[in-house]
TrEMBL record:
<protein>
    <submittedName>
        <fullName>AAA family ATPase</fullName>
    </submittedName>
</protein>
<feature type="domain" description="Rad50/SbcC-type AAA">
    <location>
        <begin position="16"/>
        <end position="209"/>
    </location>
</feature>
<dbReference type="Pfam" id="PF13476">
    <property type="entry name" value="AAA_23"/>
</dbReference>
<dbReference type="InterPro" id="IPR027417">
    <property type="entry name" value="P-loop_NTPase"/>
</dbReference>
<dbReference type="Pfam" id="PF13304">
    <property type="entry name" value="AAA_21"/>
</dbReference>
<dbReference type="GO" id="GO:0016887">
    <property type="term" value="F:ATP hydrolysis activity"/>
</dbReference>
<dbReference type="InterPro" id="IPR038729">
    <property type="entry name" value="Rad50/SbcC_AAA"/>
</dbReference>
<dbReference type="InterPro" id="IPR003959">
    <property type="entry name" value="ATPase_AAA_core"/>
</dbReference>
<feature type="domain" description="ATPase AAA-type core">
    <location>
        <begin position="215"/>
        <end position="346"/>
    </location>
</feature>
<dbReference type="InterPro" id="IPR051396">
    <property type="entry name" value="Bact_Antivir_Def_Nuclease"/>
</dbReference>
<dbReference type="GO" id="GO:0005524">
    <property type="term" value="F:ATP binding"/>
</dbReference>
């Protein structure tokens, strides 16, 4: 689909990331889901979830290197070098690994529309490095993606129609971090939508000023702004039971109205509501500022990449189960790469949408790093076909995926194992049994399987029943007569 001379799908997407001497990673590659717009990082503390998101923010910022926007692009910091533990005699020292320096590289695609209205998808391979403690982050190997960003910026300056991708990062400090007040010039450039976009500390003041200014202008001019409706629609899609979202001119507050008639100011909402409302409103408002030509469809038609660390932060379990799909609906063209510790988030995911840092799942194969990105794209591994998490119980996910032992469940599984073993022993005994002996064996099978018929272990119970039927041992007559 094309709109305003630009494609509305997959304008920007990251396929693969390589980290070398960055934080805890020696030399590791990850591939991201290209068939879905969601990839979720899971793993124990200190497995590198936040490090991956920070690295992605640096690589995404390469597109913004030539944008004249305050604090848009992000660079590698010297404190992000990998620290190795070196044992000399009885002493362990911590040594920064500057010999090879920090190296980050990415494979991704940018899409655009040719003069004949066909979509061209350009593969890009770019890298950023910090080679010494005194040096600066290099950009020489990021020239192509920086040029693509610069060309988009020039089109904006010349008043040409161009669809700008949203780029944003929300870290774990987003709820409490207080920034100084923001002074905005009037009118703003479209590129203000990139201001502070890769600062992991959310700053809802930027959204607040923009939203309140347009609300007041709408009242003064008796005019409705479509871009405000884009934000409201996104908020109502993601915030449970939200009926309306507006700026109260008298109270000078952002207000949220719920379906039960209750009304809250933004500051009086719970941490969970404030946290998610700030993220959703900020994404939608950035989409609206970057692409005002899309009107009330700005949130649904703007593509890009959004990073969220600990997406489950302060959310009720019921909301955790729904938030990923809500974000999909509100921003269908955005690639979300997020981290979580929540089994409810994991349970809401489909096949191939998880990178498990504990198991090493979704690590990419070796590839030759060169300028021919199209060849490298062909070698990029797709996310492995992991089990469908949406079909698994919370207990399965907690114990088998997240590695948390549940004693009561472990005892139940042990009981199921013992029953299955005894079940097969009985089936073997039936091979040469008389009819009378078979009836006795059927009763034994009934007794063994009965505890699982109503316990929620439907698949296990069905499996036992199929095995006995295959052996010619249906329900016992005694059981049937009851």
């Amino acid at each position: 689909m094309t709109l305003y001379g630009q494609t509305t799908s997959d304008i920007m997407k990251i396929h693969e990331l390589r980290l070398k001497n960055f934080r805890k990673f020696v030399d590791t590659r990850f591939c991201f889901n290209t068939k879905s717009n969601v990839t979720v990082l899971i793993g124990d503390n200190a497995t590198g979830k936040s490090a991956i998101l920070n690295a992605l923010s640096i690589m995404m910022g390469s597109y913004l290197l030539d944008f004249k926007v305050p604090q848009a692009a992000r660079h590698i910091r010297k404190d992000e070098v990998r620290i190795a533990q070196i044992k000399t005699g009885q002493i362990v020292s911590l040594e920064p690994q500057w010999t090879d320096g920090i190296q980050l590289s990415c494979i991704g695609t940018l899409s655009e529309v040719a003069p004949n209205d066909t979509t061209l998808s350009k593969p890009f391979l770019w890298s950023r490095e910090l080679t010494s403690e005194e040096g600066k982050t290099t950009r020489i190997n990021a020239k192509k993606i920086a040029k693509a960003g610069r060309e988009a910026r020039i089109k904006v300056e010349n008043g040409e129609e161009v669809l700008l991708p949203i780029i944003s990062y929300y870290g774990t400090g987003r709820l409490w971090h207080k920034k100084q007040d923001i002074k905005l010039s009037k009118p703003d450039s479209r590129t203000v939508g990139y201001r502070d976009c890769l600062d992991p500390a959310s700053n809802h003041r930027l959204f607040f000023k923009w939203f309140s200014r347009l609300e007041q202008a709408g009242v003064q001019k008796n005019k409705k702004f479509d871009v405000l409706e884009a934000v409201r629609t996104a908020v109502k899609t993601c915030i449970p039971n939200c009926e309306n979202f507006y700026f109260d001119l008298e109270l000078q507050e952002l207000m949220v109205e719920f379906s039960d008639g209750t009304l809250y100011s933004f500051d009086n909402l719970s941490d969970g509501y404030r946290n998610m409302l700030a993220i959703v409103a900020d994404i939608a408002h950035r989409a609206a500022r970057l692409n005002p030509q899309l009107g009330n469809q700005a949130a649904t038609l703007t593509p890009g990449i959004v990073l969220i660390d600990e997406i489950d932060l302060h959310l009720h379990p019921k909301w955790q189960r729904e938030i990923v799909n809500s974000l999909r609906s509100a921003f269908p063209k955005v690639q979300f790469i997020v981290s979580t510790h929540s089994p409810f988030i994991i349970q809401s995911l489909q096949r191939g949408e998880v990178i498990d840092l504990n198991s090493g799942e979704n690590l990419a194969p070796e590839f030759e790093f060169n300028d021919d990105a199209s060849n490298n794209i062909a070698q990029t591994a797709q996310p492995s076909p992991s089990k469908s998490y949406s079909e698994r119980s919370i207990e399965d996910i907690v114990e088998e995926v997240m590695g948390v032992n549940i004693p009561s469940r472990s005892a139940r599984l042990e009981r199921m194992y013992e029953v299955a073993k005894r079940y097969y022993q009985v089936l073997e005994e039936s091979e040469n049994a008389t009819e009378e002996e078979k009836n006795i064996l059927k009763q034994k099978l009934d007794e063994l399987s009965a505890p699982f018929s109503d316990s929620g272990d439907i698949a296990y119970y069905a499996f036992l029943e199929m095995e006995r039927l295959a052996a010619g041992l249906g329900k016992s007559k005694v059981k049937d007569e009851e």
